[in-house]
């Protein structure tokens, strides 16, 4: 998998990559992308348990690492999908005490 836009990888497993969104809409905005070529959720094979296990394990790991008190896992489809490769957004717009979160203002 290659990217036309440089991205910072946070995690990589056998089935997915987690990267910071190159144009974040939230203080914490990570993309989770399957390594398999899958255009959208409509084309995803629900029996792909390896990817599903990696997805939820990676999300859990990121939520814990970045101490996200509130977050959302979003998948867009159809006209809401920006590019034709299945991807999930892990987002949080809550103010964080973790300075590693780009754009977040630490609590004082």
Explain how this protein is built.
The chain is of the alpha+beta class and 108 residues long. It has one domain (9-92): HIT-like (HIT family, subunit A). 16% of the residues lie in helices and 23% in strands. A 5-stranded antiparallel β-sheet has the order 1-2-3-5-4, with helices on one face. β2 (16-20) and β3 form a beta hairpin. The protein is globular and about 40 Å long. 18% of the residues are buried.
Alpha-carbon distance between the two ends: 41 Å
- Regarding CATH, which class? Alpha Beta
Tell me the strand percentage band. Answer: 15-25%
Largest sheet, if any?
A: 5 strands, antiparallel
Please tell me the CATH architecture by its name. Answer: 2-Layer Sandwich
| Estimated radius of gyration | 14 Å
Strand order of the largest sheet: 1-2-3-5-4
How many H/I helices? 1
Task: Fill in the CATH topology.
Answer: HIT family, subunit A
Q: Which stretches of 5+ consecutive residues score pLDDT under 50?
A: 103-108
Secondary structure topology:
Layout: E1 9-12, E2 16-20, E3 28-34, H1 49-65, E4 72-75, E5 88-92
Antiparallel strand pairs: 1-2, 2-3, 3-5, 4-5
Provide the descriptors you would attach to this structure in a database record.
alpha+beta, HIT family, subunit A, five-stranded antiparallel sheet, 5 strands, 16% helix
């Amino acid at each position: 998998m290659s990217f036309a836009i440089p991205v910072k990888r946070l995690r990589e497993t056998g089935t997915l990559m987690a990267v910071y969104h190159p144009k974040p809409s939230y203080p914490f905005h990570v993309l989770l992308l399957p390594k398999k070529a899958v255009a959208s959720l409509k084309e995803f094979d629900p029996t792909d348990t390896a990817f599903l296990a990696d997805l939820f394990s990676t999300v859990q790991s990121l939520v814990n690492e970045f101490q996200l008190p509130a977050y959302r896992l979003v998948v867009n489809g159809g006209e809401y999908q920006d590019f034709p490769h299945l991807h999930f957004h892990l987002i949080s717009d809550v103010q964080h005490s973790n300075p590693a979160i780009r754009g977040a203002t630490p609590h004082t």
